[in-house]
Amino acid sequence: MIDFEGINAAALGNAEGILQNWLPDGKRNGREWVCRNPKRADNRAGSFSVNLHSGVWADFATGEGGGDLIALYAFLNDCEQGQAARAVADELRMTNPIRKRERRPKYQPAKQNAPQAHTAPLKAKTEPKPAPEIRHYKLGAPAFAWEYRNEAGQATGYACRYEDENGKQVLPFSWTGEKWEWRAMPEPRPLYNLPRVLNKPQAVVIIAEGEKAADAAQGLFPEGVAATWAGGCKAWHKTDWQPLKGRAVIFWPDNDRPGQTVAADVQEHLLGLGAKFVKVIALPFGLPQGWDAADAVAEGWTRGMALELLAGFPNTPEGLCPLCWLRSVVAPVGGPTCKHTFKGWPETWPANHEDFCHGPRRAGD
């Protein structure tokens, strides 16, 4: 049988040279080889990278990835693992790439499906089994793992964050229908926090880009339900958004062009599904590139500061208390009842306004 471990070990010994041949438009960045994905219309390097020490690779825009250089060769050349291993061995001029051992499962390239406006959840081949201990065979235990659950509350995937001195990478660990594997979840994928979205049908849904940002947004908007999708900006269409039909949605984008683009795409898609409304937060001018809800929390933003982002939304009464507006749009009873204006905030709002609907005031106010 093919000596996968031996071939991979030999490939890692010359990883940079091999990758210069396979992905010639890339460059080394610390322990990573950063490049464009040649299998899709990737305009610039950044989302596709290969770890030069472990061989782990991922396209964070699509959710595709693998655990070694043989899997990468199979992905790039649309072939099976055995063919890939032999080709890599030939490239390395290995004289004996064969040994008696169990054959590895085939690599199955992820399908590139076009966005679908009305996608019904697919039934897995079997009910998801509880996930084993999450430990990558090369990287070990993740620094953090965000859990995705289906509408029945069963875990179907994890976004696993690994960190070292050179940065971070997020790898998907998923139930594929038969077993748990280090690969992207099957499509259509569930929303992050789906059971909570379903259990609070009247709550405003706050969409953020990434699980860490969604958790931060949940803390700043506890009346709502925070959610996100798996796989990065360019994989939003691989998620089942049907649970947001008829819902009030606020999208908190990252402060960069991809963030604004995906916010507009998701907004259009949700409105087409029949969402009650979808508002995209207009971020203040001058924020750092890529800034998101997690950065807001790290900088000490209060609930009141976050609610300020909602003041003056289109179709929002001028100066209305944003929290009362949030509550009125999901369960209107004769329209908003709060008459306090934003213009004199916070002096014009009494202290007993639900402990001021906005939470702690900012220092200096």
UniProtKB/TrEMBL annotation:
Name a biological process GO annotation: DNA replication, synthesis of primer
- Got a GO cellular component term for this one? DNA-directed RNA polymerase complex
Where is region (Disordered) located?
Answer: 98-129
Record's keyword terms, sorted: DNA replication, DNA-directed RNA polymerase, Nucleotidyltransferase, Primosome, Transcription, Transferase
GO MF terms here are: DNA binding; nucleotidyltransferase activity; zinc ion binding
Q: Where is the Toprim domain?
A: 203-288
Which superkingdom, per the lineage?
A: Bacteria
What is this protein's name? Toprim domain-containing protein
